[in-house]
Write a structure and sequence with these properties.
One of its GO terms (cellular component) is nucleus. With 202 residues, the chain is mostly beta strands. The chain has a domain at 66-199: Jelly Rolls (Sandwich). The protein is built from three helices and 13 strands; from the N terminus they run ββββαβαβαβββββββ. Strands 3, 4, 5, 6, 8, 9, 10, 11 and 12 form a nine-stranded antiparallel beta sheet that branches. Strand 8 (134-148) and strand 9 (154-160) form a beta hairpin. The protein starts with 6 loop residues before the first strand and ends with a strand. The model is unreliable at 1-40 (pLDDT under 50).
Amino acid sequence: MKKDCFYKLDLVRKKPLQKILLQYERTAFVDFAPHYNYYQKMVQLYYHDNNDTEDNFTDDHNSGVPVSFEEIEELGVIYKHVTSQEELDALAKEREYKNRDKIHLNLETFKNDVDAYNAKMKQFYTEHYHEDEEIRYIVDGEGFFDVRNKGDKWIRAKLSKNDLLILPEGIYHRFTLTNSREVTAIRLFKDEPKWEAINRVH
């Protein structure tokens, strides 16, 4: 599969409409081979509209301005689409990550207490950084990762099943659920992770 070749598909006729770089909906790339029925949703990357509050943090807040993979790579942020346990294990070995844990968050996690759930989402609103890499792999559900670019603007990544994001140490970010209110994720880390969140002081 050639990563520099992107196609938007006509799902009725199963023919390529035009060869374009998809930056808004982030549709997966398709090779020249005649497998035009392959169509896969990937991570959505866009600039945050900066109209959020602690109370509406979990809304999409899509400014309508897309962000390319190249832009996040310049920040040291790496995106991967991982579809199997074998791929995940290979990545962990490659980056020398020996430990991992799995988290599952939804309303039931808070015993269906909406106030308790919303209180936790408000805690997620605070931006911070870590002194170690952070790797988050979405097993199921959805979540948002916001990262600051070099101009101090928020870039929002809407992650769903099989999306994996690697954040470098020292980058300001925050994570929250979407309004679907459910996510299962795996965190990968080394022997002695430095998971202490260092909050930003404004």
